[in-house]
From TrEMBL:
InterPro entries: DNA_clamp_sf, Pr_cel_nuc_antig. Keywords: DNA replication, DNA-binding. The gene is pcn. Sliding clamp subunit that acts as a moving platform for DNA processing. Responsible for tethering the catalytic subunit of DNA polymerase and other proteins to DNA during high-speed replication. It comes from Halorubrum saccharovorum DSM 1137. SUPFAM superfamilies: DNA clamp. The lineage of its organism: Archaea, Methanobacteriati, Methanobacteriota, Stenosarchaea group, Halobacteria. One of its GO terms (molecular function) is DNA polymerase processivity factor activity. This is DNA polymerase sliding clamp.
Length: 274
């Protein structure tokens, strides 16, 4: 990894100023979820904080994520968009520990991003935002009928177990032996099967009258998507029948009890033919 690189004159869509200082954990968590979906991103330097949307080349996974300015020690931005290589900025952030202060500052003359973390200074070349894959619209009106909230620990357990036997995982709603709503995480392999039942009592929250949900998804995506989710997060799941699945969660809790930002990930289903 080199310390400085040549950059296109169009690496920023504006010559807006930008500077942010905050704990390494907040920046790392923010960029890691994008990295689970894509290699590059357009980073929006909004007045309220950092924001972005990415989609993978196959149009299977999408991510919309934000990092609120309230989570940072200092934040100043006058708007604009910059293009980033995600693995590169995460490599730099990885040189520090979770509570180390990280400073990001945009040099509007050279159009490079200066990064400081734990005594390390790095000058990162930016990418022309126009060369990056167009940002998708993550629809909020899919009308997915089954919505429930689960502890991330239970979701992670189901994904990990399914990965032991199959390349795909099924999420569906059903009725437990007690006659109450339950969520099932299932995987069928060539010889072995996995079934995890999250009963009504295990769910953090549910819709008043949840509908039916039953869809199959690629585990390759889910294994990457789950990595950045905070271990103590509560994840809201929106599910339909052979429809995309949505996961919503809040970032690491700040000292005042608020969340550093929030993330939505949408995954297209593997539609089963009759």
């Amino acid at each position: 990894m080199s310390g400085a690189e040549t950059v296109s004159a169009d690496a920023t869509e504006t010559s807006a100023g930008f500077k942010a200082i905050g704990e390494q954990q907040y920046f790392a968590e923010f960029f890691e979820q994008f990295d689970a979906i894509a290699d590059e991103m357009k980073l929006h330097l909004d007045d309220g904080g950092l924001f972005g949307i990415v989609v993978d080349p196959a149009n299977v996974g999408m991510c919309r994520d934000s990092l609120d300015r309230e989570a940072l020690e200092h934040y100043s931005a006058t708007g604009g968009v910059i293009g980033l290589n995600l693995s590169r900025i995460l490599d730099i952030l990885g040189m520090g520990n979770s509570e180390d202060l990280v400073e990001l500052e945009l040099d509007t003359e050279t159009r490079k991003l200066h990064i400081q973390v734990d005594g390390l200074s790095y000058t990162l070349a930016l990418i022309d935002p126009d060369s990056i894959r167009k940002e998708p619209e993550i629809p909020d009106d899919l009308d997915l009928p089954a919505t429930m909230t689960v502890d991330f620990a239970d979701l992670k357990r189901g994904i990990t177990a399914a990965d032991m036997v199959s390349d795909h995982i099924r999420f569906r709603t059903g009725t437990s032996e007690e006659g109450k709503l339950a969520v099932y995480v299932e995987a069928e392999g060539d010889t072995d099967d996995v079934d995890l039942e999250l009963t009504h009592e295990k769910l953090v929250a549910i819709d008043a009258e949840p509908g039916d949900g039953d869809s199959l998804f690629s585990l390759d995506y889910l294994k990457d998507i789950k990595k950045p989710i905070p271990k103590d997060a509560e994840v809201r799941i929106e599910l339909g029948e052979e429809h995309p699945i949505k996961f919503h969660y809040g970032h690491t809790e700040m000292g005042d009890g608020g969340l550093a930002g929030d993330c939505t990930v949408m995954l297209a289903p593997r539609v089963q033919s009759d």
